[in-house]
Amino acid sequence: MTDYINLGHMRLLSPGEIRATSQPVHYIPHHGIWQRGDSGPKLRVVFHASRPTSTGHSLNDVVFTGPSLQPSLWRVLLKWRRHRIAFCTDVKMMYRQIWIDPRDVNLQRVLWSPSDKEPEVHYQLLTATYGQSCAPYLALRTLQQLCSDEGHHHPEAATDLLNESLANRGGFPLRKWVANSPELLDDLPSDVCLRPTWIHLSTGGPVTELGVCWDPTSDSFQLTPPSVNGMQETKREILSQK
Question: Structure pTM?
Answer without folding.
Answer: 0.76
